Amino acid sequence: MNLEKHEDFFQMVFQVVRLIPKGRVTNYGSIAKYLGAARSSRMVGWAMNAAHSQKKKVPAHRVVNRNGELTGKHHFASPFLMQELLEKEGVKVVNDKIQNFDAVFWDPINELEM
DNA sequence: TGGGTGACCATAG
DNA sequence: ACTATGGCCACCC
C-alpha cells in the first residue's frame, strides 16, 4: 500500500489533540512520544501547521512547547488568539508563558490507555 | 546530493 | 536567563 505516511500521522496527532480536556495543555514532545516517537516532536509541530485547515476543529492552542511557552501563537489567525482561547478556559498566560504549568499539564502517556 | 529551515527536545556551560 | 550543539525528520530549494 502506498499510503501517504504523513497524512496518517497528521490524523493521529489531531486525534490526540482533540482529547486534551478543556483547561489543560500538553506539549509537542509528549504527543510524539505517545505516538511512538518514530517521528520527532518537530513533526508534531509540522502537523499542527495543517491543523487549521481541518474540517474537524483541532484545539491547537492547547499544545505548547516543553516550557509551557506559546511558541505557536504566530500561526494563529491573530497572534493574540492563542492566549485568549487559553485564558477563556481558565489557563493563565503571562508573557507568552503558561502559569502553573505543572498543574494544567496533561500527558497522553499518563492519561490515555496505550 | 547537500544545505537551510522549523508551532521541538535534551544537555552543557 | 542566555547561547551552543547534537539529534530528530520532512520539506524546499
Provide structural commentary.
With 114 residues, the protein is mostly helical. The chain has one domain (3-103): Winged helix-like DNA-binding domain superfamily/Winged helix DNA-binding domain (Arc Repressor Mutant, subunit A, Orthogonal Bundle). The protein has helices at residues 5-18, 28-34, 41-48, 81-88, 101-104, 108-111; strands at 26-27, 63-64, 93-94, 97-98. The strands form two sheets. It has a two-stranded parallel ribbon. A two-stranded antiparallel sheet has the order 3-4. The longest helix is centred in the N-terminal third of the chain and has 14 residues, at 5-18. The two termini are 26 Å apart. The mean pLDDT is 90. The structure holds a DNA duplex (13 and 13 nucleotides).
Brief summary of the model shown:
The chain has 114 residues and is mainly α. The protein has one domain (3-103): Winged helix-like DNA-binding domain superfamily/Winged helix DNA-binding domain (Arc Repressor Mutant, subunit A), CATH 1.10.10. The chain is built from six helices and four strands; from the N terminus they run αβααβαββαα.
Q: What is the rounded Rg?
A: 14 Å
CATH superfamily: Winged helix-like DNA-binding domain superfamily/Winged helix DNA-binding domain
Number of helices: 6
Series of H and E elements: HEHHEHEEHH
Give the overall average pLDDT. Answer: 90
Strand content: 5-15%
The strand order across the widest sheet is 1-2
N-to-C CA distance: 26 Å
Question: Uncertain spans, ≥5 residues at pLDDT below 50?
Answer: none
When the domains are counted, the total is 1
